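Structure, all two chains, one model.
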Amino acid sequence: MKQMITANTLVEGTVVFWSGVAAPLHSEKAQSQNQDRPSPPARWVRSIEEAAVFESKEQAEEALHMAEESVVSCAVVEPYLIEVTRLDTHLIPVRLRERIRALGPTVRSDPDVESAAKQDRI
Amino acid sequence: MYRYDEFDRDFVLQRVAQFADQVRRRLSGALTEEQFRPLRLMNGLYLQLHAYMLRVAVPYGTLSSRQMRQLAWIARRYDRGYGHFTTRQNIQYNWPELKDVPAILEALAEVEMHAIQTSGNCIRNITTDHFAGAAADEIEDPRPAAEILRQWSSLHPEFSFLPRKFKIAITGAAQDRAAIRFHDIGYQLVRDATGARGFAVYIGGGQGRTPMIAHKIRSFLPESDLLAYSEAILRVYNRYGRRDNKFKARIKILVHETGIETLRSEIEAVFEEIQGGVLSLPEEERARIAAYFAPPPFETLPAESTVCVLQAARDPNFAAWLRHNTFPHKIPGYACVTVSLKPIGGVPGDATADQMEALAACAERWSFDELRVSHEQNIVLPHVRRNDLPELYATLCEGGLGEANAGLVTDIIACPGLDYCALANARSIPIAQEIARRFAKYDQQRDIGDLKIKISGCINACGHHHVGHIGILGVDRKGEELYQLTLGGSADENAAIGAIIGRGFPAEEVVDAVETLLKTYLSLRLDPSETFLATYRRIGASPFKEALYGAS
């Protein structure tokens, strides 16, 4: 069973995934607007493609423990594990709920909203 | 019109400042999420699937053009260019960022709006008939009473931590467009033999996982006792309502477990103690508040408009819109207009910032600056001269707001469902979109006639599926979306809870199932004037069941 870690960022509420490696901060905008607070561990990414995948339960739980430090540092809220599965060359969440979280609502099609949504979409 | 007074202004501004400080402390880490969650919920801020969601109160669904413009501005500046009007006559923003919420609340306060009591275990926004103060069949405008209840219930210290949320609805007409029998308290404005104003009182209605129709506990409550009686009901509920189980905490369960007669005597006993005290409503105070809702300066006009009749003869699209999207007004020569937020294939209840501004402009020009949010997720322009209807219709069409489908098969209520909501088990909106596309042709819609399809993505029933003529409930069955159909529900004065027709359908089959139900209805109705609901009530579930699942 493959797993990933997901959460929402505290400042924006955006869906993010644990990358497991030091990477650019999850939101540069948030960093610039909140310089008075401590920098969060820079290990969260917006794209599920860049998320770390854990093959064993032990690995996943150990990583979740590390990811939870980002709660203390105010980077994210409520990180949790999700199951993922391989589809062609991509890994996608098993549950529909998590697929929708990863890709956005399935329903709006008007161009303005769509383009606005894409700016932030992972 | 709703008027903010100095008390509202002070407490809203205090609350904005308080919440801005709470957000600052949360972002700095001084507050944990656990500490912050109840504080944000008290200000209407949820964390949903993709983002935060801010629910803004629209008192009894009434808005001015200025307020609607501000809602549009907020959608554009802080959200993704649209908002979602809800079955609670409110608006929700789906994408605000936490850091922006204090600024959004400030922007709302500028136009006398807020997000207080749109969440949590308190008395929620009071809802009413979207045609209040305008409908021809109304006894009297229910909004003065709704405003009195709003003032009483706002930040009421005794009722800020109830066992569970508490919803009050009020109607001024015998034809119930406010679903009062599905609220914790429903008030219906009536007059006694002497002509005095009062209320028939219903309690214990609700939907969710345990749908119940409210019981009438008073046929006539004098108007001056409105607050004392409301307080008595709330006090009894607050004392005896269950706090051990969230799913059994609503007053409907207390009514069910205690028995209506026992509860009625408890309420009457408390009422007797407080009646005639500080909560008695002085007539001069009632009149002062009623003056906020004084009718606009209507003109004296002939009942029929030649311009309108001629245009309807020329333009079948306008004729269709006139037929379905206007409702008789109490003043000759005027109409109540329902602006559909259900374009074919659109998201029920969504409006873009441009559309909100267009609606504000229409209200300013043609409806005395007034708009209403309906619990059916449409917008109402309550007071339009019939002479102006052709021009209004043309303007609405330019903004993609001219759908002629109010009350028809494509005028579907749908909750946000799994596309947005953290509680949902299945999607609602795509099902609504697919049904609308299937029945897009006007002639087909007109032939089917009055029909209420209501869709919820979970058992909490925000999409009112229990009271849909056809209700659709999305559930999760082993990771797949499955949709249960209920038939025969109704939220009006002939209230009924829909009955499950049989096993559920996967997403790709549910629209076919709805079509089967409608074909069955069309083949079995006595004549085109017999509605789906009337046919169902006459013939029962069996023919529909057989059509869906074959003979048993």
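The longest strand of chain B covers residues 215-222.
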